[in-house]
Amino acid sequence: MNVTTLIPDGTGLVDWPTLSTVKKSVVTVGGFDGMHRGHLAVVKRTVALAQSHRAYSVVVMFDPRPALVHGYAATHHGEDPAPGTRDPDALTSVHQRLRIMHELGVDHVLVVHYTLAFAAKSFRFFLGQLVGKLGMRTLVLGSDAAMGANRTGDIAAIRNLSEATGVFELSVVEDLGPGYVRVPAVITPRVPDRAGEPQDPTAQMTKAELRAWSKEHQGRKTRVWSSSYVRYLLSQGRIHDANEVLGSRHAIEGLVVHGEGLGRTLGFPTANLGDDIDGYIPVDGVYAGWLVDLGERNHDASGSEATSTPTQANGETVGFSSATSPSDEIRMAAHSPWRWPAAISIGTKPTYDDGNGANQRVIEPYAITKDWLELYGHTVRVEFSGFISPQIAFPDSEALKRAMGGWSDKTLALVAGNEAKDEAKDESAR
């Protein structure tokens, strides 16, 4: 898979590459944050149509997320986000999304640096560029997609343009999944108040109670298969439900740094993650999941490991790569020697609270293995399988040590159960 990073110039124009002078393209467009089941359906349709037409499959992916850019502009006098602005609401990094697209067999991914000037172009102009520059013969979109200035390019408008011009076809994927849910207008992380996987608080409500809940939380109608719903679920610790929408385990990735060494003194050495985390961090608590050692690596815009925020805007192509490290697939494989079950703690270490506010939120996965792991300086992937417990302040280190032993046992039981379910699904799919 080839990846090209494109930076619009100051007027929003993009210097689109010429992929071929004779071969057409099947194109899809979006942010694809999370790469949930809806995104997967759209990308799979794109790849399948491209193969049937002997065309290139092309994904035009926006980075940063349009929601971040427009939200930042609303509070910063209409300006674009400054280079390096962190997006805490992003479910996945660009590299994580590229990795999945590579697995799906996409030929080309064009990562467009999303700017306000670029967003101000009409959808007609944008689609004309894709036809003229990329040779787009078919556009694949989800059923409620919208694009262009003020999002006026909805499915009806794009279909009218397709039929009127006859220069490209529109293929619409019904990517709504099970339908719709109500999600609070403002997503506020809420730590579950008891052990075990949290349940949907609205599941047993009557219609009247649901209306009251929706009014209290300013609930808005949201697709089940959507990044917004996944974000909400993770903010409530509902890992099982989030993973069901994603079609895989939610994961974050980051660099292992030196911590305080408390885990080692307790006999549970943890891999402390630094501040620069790729992916949405679930609400505080103890989780069951997996730790994967992705090895030592460099993250830069020109290499194959990641795409950083561009610092220039001249309309040029600034990166071209193969998108993913071959070792990632090997290390992330189900029975890889670089993968271990892990109890994952997210929070502020309440047992050791010094009372002066110095404790910071930390992410500490403990790999359940007899081997001694030396992961400092390595990038690791932390996958979440389920919620075990809220964080608790224990009276002493011995009580915490006993609790960590219990969390480890629950982790092994939970991931083993999930693996059995996954294998059963794979068998039935065959």
Question: How would you briefly describe this protein structure?
Answer:
This protein is an alpha/beta fold and about 425 residues long.
| End-to-end C-alpha gap | 27 Å
Count of individual helical segments? 12
What is the top-level CATH class of the largest domain?
Answer: Mainly Beta
**Which residues sit in consecutive blocks of at least 5 with pLDDT less than 50?**
299-314, 316-323
What is the CATH superfamily classification of the largest domain? Answer: Riboflavin kinase-like
SS elements, strand count: 16
Estimate percent helicity.
Answer: 25-40%
Family: Belongs to the RibF family.
Keywords: ATP-binding, FAD, Flavoprotein, FMN, Kinase, Nucleotide-binding, Nucleotidyltransferase, Transferase
Organism: Bifidobacterium mongoliense DSM 21395
Pfam families: FAD_syn, Flavokinase
Write the layout of secondary structure elements.
Elements: E1 2-6, E2 25-30, H1 37-53, E3 56-63, H2 66-75, H3 94-104, E4 108-113, H4 116-119, H5 123-134, E5 136-142, E6 146-147, E7 153-154, H6 155-165, E8 169-173, E9 180-184, H7 207-216, E10 219-223, H8 227-235, H9 239-246, E11 250-255, H10 262-266, E12 285-295, E13 317-321, H11 326-332, E14 339-347, E15 362-367, E16 379-389, H12 397-429
Parallel strand pairs: 1-4, 2-3, 2-5, 3-4, 5-8
Antiparallel strand pairs: 1-13, 6-7, 9-10, 11-16, 12-14, 12-16, 14-15
